[in-house]
Amino acid sequence: MNWDHLTANISYGAVPDAQLINRVEIHSPSAGGTNSEPTIRLFINEWVARNSNSIRDPADNSAEDWFEIYNAESVAIDLGGYYLSDDPGNPLKYQIPDTGRYRIPARGYLVVWADEEPDQNSNTRSNLHVNFQLGGNDGSILITAPDGLTPVDTVTYGAQTNDISEGRYSDGASVRYYMPLITTNITPSAPNSIPGYNSPPRFPVVANRSAFPGQSTGTFSIRAYDPDNNTITYAVESGPVGAAVNINGLFRWIVPTNQPYGDYPIKLRATDNGVPARSDTVTFVVTVRSIGPVVTPVTLPPTIQSVFNVNGQATFTIETIPGHTYRILYSDDLAQPQWTQLGRDFMAANPYASITDPGAAPQRFYQVVQLD
Fold first, then answer.
1. Span 349-365, pLDDT tens digits
2. DSSP code string of 148-164
3. Which of 74, 183, 218, 267 is the most core-located residue (most Cβ within 10 A)?
């Protein structure tokens, strides 16, 4: 079993137990017990129910309740149509507008202002406003799938303290901590950190690139985020000669004129100066292309693989090309000419994407279509 990097309170293994194909990060470690992961890995990740002097709502500069949603998947998730609530007896209190605006990137975040001011939602603002507030003495926060029936995540909390957030550490983990403003541990739209512990930096998802011999990949940012505001140093851990990253997290490779054509994996490391020093790695591929006559490549269809069943839900992995857009279709009866789209089209960020169908029938057929 091999893995690249795990953060605090996160394990790695087979879900469901004993399957050998698609091992994953497990946000609720279960030593000696059954492994499990949510069907849709969206988490209520951090919340402030007593906000008097922490961050302010950019819509009106008010200190208001807020919470953060974290997407632990390797693909973006559009929250349009999902429901949010503070009341377990009424989980459908607020439906997120299906405008395409509230799309959380892979390993990304969405800040939700619980200010009872949904009229402040706008296509020019990245945050979401809902029609409820959070209880300061105790309360609940719920996410429900667009079918109105499937719970996605729920947290229940006790009495809160002014300007101290509560949340999961590491992001998405079942273990929760308090994160005070005085130590700058309140981190909306960023990885959670806790006092007294040096959190590792986190790389963003880095898309693959291509270049021709004698040309450059261009200079682009792979800058990591450090939850503790430590200084980060960067290094090329493996890759072709000449690949370089500077102190500001900007990467460039000037491809030699005699560089053979092919794919060149590049692994970068970011290390902070905390105690103890911690690091993160990211790997991407630069494809060196031929500058000869243009030849139309043979395009192979996407391949469905790693099909398995989790709690009655169909989950499978597909091979993807980063930067290209895909559509998933399904049918419960091949005798019928029409196929139904599963979710929204998505742009691949990695060579593989995991697809979960929360409404899978006893018999269901799937198609994967590459749109570009």
1. 767 777 888 776 778 88
2. SS-EEEEEEE----TTE
3. 74
